[in-house]
Write a structure and sequence with these properties.
Its EC number is 5.1.1.7. With about 280 residues, the chain is mostly beta strands. It is built from 4 helices and 18 strands. The protein has helices at about 25-35, 80-95, 220-235, 275-280, and strands at about 1-10, 10-15, 45-50, 65-70, 105-110, 110-120, 120-130, 130-140, 145-150, 155-160, 175-180, 190-195, 205-210, 215, 240-245, 250-255, 260-265, 265-275. Helix 1 (about 25-35) crosses helix 4.
């Protein structure tokens, strides 16, 4: 099987070209590909398939030619991935599957069609405006931390840390606890603190995230959008620009009245072939 490896601020993916939807992609195969010791290693898998050739994308084929079939590292599905969509668009352009025209490129996802713009190493993707819809809590290290539930096409819980907790000291080797009544399908949990002022943006936030189905990751695009929306709300703003620093770098989130733009680097770093027999035998 041919593959490409790419990442957006350290949030890394295995991309599989399957334009006609012929690949028998299973949870076991996805988990084996993402295994960092026995496989290629990644936070998730992005299958590159034409929207018309995938049952989850066929309804969007009139708007977008390509469907981002995203899988978490544990082999489960995810509705949306902000960094993944940026890396996906980078793959489409670099492999000649779409031609940049200066206008936003549409991509079908399980959360609907998103649109992306490319400028050098930077890819910006327009997604739905984050929706803050409930208060909830996360449990970590014996502490219960208040948070805000946010819908960005997938579920998030954003927790602002109290002054006595350091962001870098959090133990995210195990999943934070959460209320399954609020998040019946699981949730990505973000922990944040305010950063120093940054020129050119309205707010600056530092973030770590435990992603549903992938554990702690170096970055989470939809998580950054959720965090930006909470930071703006807490600052008394409905819209604005937020710099979000994650362990893998910095992304910029622009929340408008009706959408949300996520911008940052998206790079392809390797291509190759993987022996499926050997991969699955080692899993």
């Amino acid at each position: 099987m041919q593959f490409t490896k790419g990442h957006g601020t350290g949030n890394d993916f295995v991309l599989l070209p399957d334009p006609d939807g012929q690949l028998d992609l299973t949870p076991g195969l996805v988990a084996a590909l993402c295994d960092r010791r026995r496989g290629i290693g990644a936070d998730g898998v992005l299958r590159v398939v034409r929207a018309a050739k995938h049952p989850d994308g066929a309804g969007q084929a009139g708007e977008a030619e390509w469907f981002m079939d995203y899988w978490n590292a544990d082999g489960s599905f995810a509705e949306m991935c902000g960094n993944g969509s940026r890396v996906f668009v980078r793959y489409l352009v670099d492999n000649g599957l779409v031609t940049p025209t200066g206008e936003a490129l549409p991509v079908a996802t399980r959360a609907g069609v998103v649109r992306a713009l490319i400028e050098g190493d930077t890819v910006a993707v327009e997604m739905r405006r984050p929706r803050l819809y409930d208060d909830s809590t996360a449990t970590l290290g014996g502490r219960t931390l208040p948070g805000t539930a946010v819908d960005v096409g997938n579920p998030h819980l954003v927790c602002v840390l109290p002054a006595d907790l350091e962001l870098g000291a959090l133990d995210l080797t195990t999943a934070p606890g959460f209320d399954p009544a609020v998040f019946p399908a699981g949730v990505n949990v973000e922990f944040i603190v305010a950063g120093e002022p940054v020129d050119g943006v309205d707010e600056h936030t530092l973030m770590r995230v435990y992603e549903r189905g992938s554990a702690e990751t170096l970055s989470c695009g939809t998580g950054a959008c959720a965090v930006a929306a909470v930071a703006l709300r807490d600052a008394g703003r409905g819209t604005g620009v937020v710099a979000v620093d994650v362990p893998g770098g910095r992304v910029t989130v622009t929340v408008t009245e009706d959408s949300c733009w996520l911008s940052g680097p998206a790079l392809l770093v390797a291509t190759g072939e993987v022996d499926l027999g050997a991969l699955l035998a080692a899993a």
